[in-house]
DNA sequence: GACCAGGTCCTTG
DNA sequence: CAAGGACATGGT
């Protein structure tokens, strides 16, 4: 990539820095496919990907499909042992099985199906999801953003990390509001921006040190 | 063998 | 409220 590596003094507001991150990453990556798949798959994958590599999640989803367990309705009825066996490769498989059961129970009892859920407003869904044990802010927003195509921005460890590199020391809760204030209303922009951030972080940010946040510290 | 991965919850100080 | 630990397998 032919980007300046000179670091510049951080003089902009957090809001304009946020906008800059969105703009720079979009210019760098353009449109990239991210988390395709139906709503059921996103609901399940959102739990499985907690603190876990996506490749392992893909494998688990394939195993769930083989056992006809890759749907909220199926998980609702399934024997936990069967679920555990399929998702073992994602780690934390006992907790995650409990969380999937809790999520499936919530969806089936409160709505009847993910399809019916889609008729409800974002705020209502978010409030409900956060009541489910094992569904925190990031998982809830992932479900809303990628499963129901809502404009609810996902703040994960990567986003927090990159913002810190860019001189935005805000807390995660505050970051969500910052991005949502800067992004256009189009849910697709929310999806793409999150995708860009994750791709960027995985590609350039080392574990311990982060002298690699080149884009964030460049002049454009 | 050490260290980390697209978190969340519970316990402590 | 911040910090630390538990949950667990798989890749580097």
Cα(first) to Cα(last) distance is: 12 Å
Globally, the shape reads: globular
CATH architectural label of the largest domain = Orthogonal Bundle
Give the CATH superfamily of the largest domain. Answer: Hypothetical protein, domain 2
Question: What is the total tally of β strands?
Answer: 0
Low-confidence stretches: 1-10
Percent range of helical residues: 55-70%
Q: Specify Rg, calculated over alpha carbons.
A: 18 Å
Q: Which series of helices and strands comes N to C?
A: HHHHHHHHHHHHH
Could you report the average pLDDT, rounded to the nearest whole number?
Answer: 90
Whole-number tally of structural domains: 2
Relative strand content = under 5%
Annotation field: number of helices: 13
Question: What composes the largest sheet?
Answer: none
Derived structural class: mainly alpha
* CATH topology group of the largest domain: Endonuclease III, domain 1
Name of the CATH first level of the largest domain = Mainly Alpha
Description:
With 220 residues, the protein is mostly helical. It is built from 13 helices and no strands. Helix 1 (14-29) crosses helix 11 and helix 1 packs across helix 12 (187-204). The chain is globular, with a radius of gyration of 18 Å. The two termini are 12 Å apart. The chain binds a DNA duplex (13 and 12 nucleotides) through helix 3, helix 6, helix 9, helix 10 and helix 12.
Question: Could you give the topology of this structure?
Answer:
Blueprint: H1 14-29, H2 39-48, H3 54-66, H4 72-77, H5 80-87, H6 93-110, H7 114-117, H8 122-131, H9 137-147, H10 157-165, H11 172-182, H12 187-204, H13 214-217
Helix pairs in contact: 1-11, 1-12, 2-3, 2-6, 2-9, 5-6, 8-9, 10-12
The structure holds a DNA duplex (13 and 12 nucleotides).
């Amino acid at each position: 990539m032919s980007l300046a590596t000179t670091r510049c003094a951080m003089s902009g507001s957090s809001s304009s820095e946020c906008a800059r991150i969105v703009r720079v990453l979009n210019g760098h990556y353009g449109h990239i496919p991210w988390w395709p798949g139906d709503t059921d798959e996103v609901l399940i994958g959102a739990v499985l990907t907690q603190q876990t590599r996506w490749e392992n999640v893909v494998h688990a989803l394939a195993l769930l499909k083989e056992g006809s367990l890759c749907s909220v309705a199926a998980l609702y009825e399934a024997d936990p042992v069967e679920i555990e066996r399929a998702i073992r490769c994602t780690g934390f498989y006992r907790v995650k099985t409990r969380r999937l059961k809790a999520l499936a129970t919530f969806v089936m009892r409160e709505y009847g199906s993910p399809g019916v859920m889609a008729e409800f407003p974002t705020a209502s869904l978010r409030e409900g999801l956060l009541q489910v044990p094992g569904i925190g802010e990031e998982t809830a927003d992932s479900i809303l953003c990628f499963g129901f195509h809502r404009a609810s921005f996902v703040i994960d460890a990567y986003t927090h990390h990159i913002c810190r590199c860019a001189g935005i020391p805000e807390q995660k809760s505050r970051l969500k509001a910052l991005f949502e204030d800067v992004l256009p209303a189009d849910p697709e922009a929310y999806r793409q921006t999150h995708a860009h951030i994750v791709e960027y972080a995985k590609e350039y940010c080392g574990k311990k040190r982060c002298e690699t946040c080149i884009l964030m510290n460049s002049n454009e």
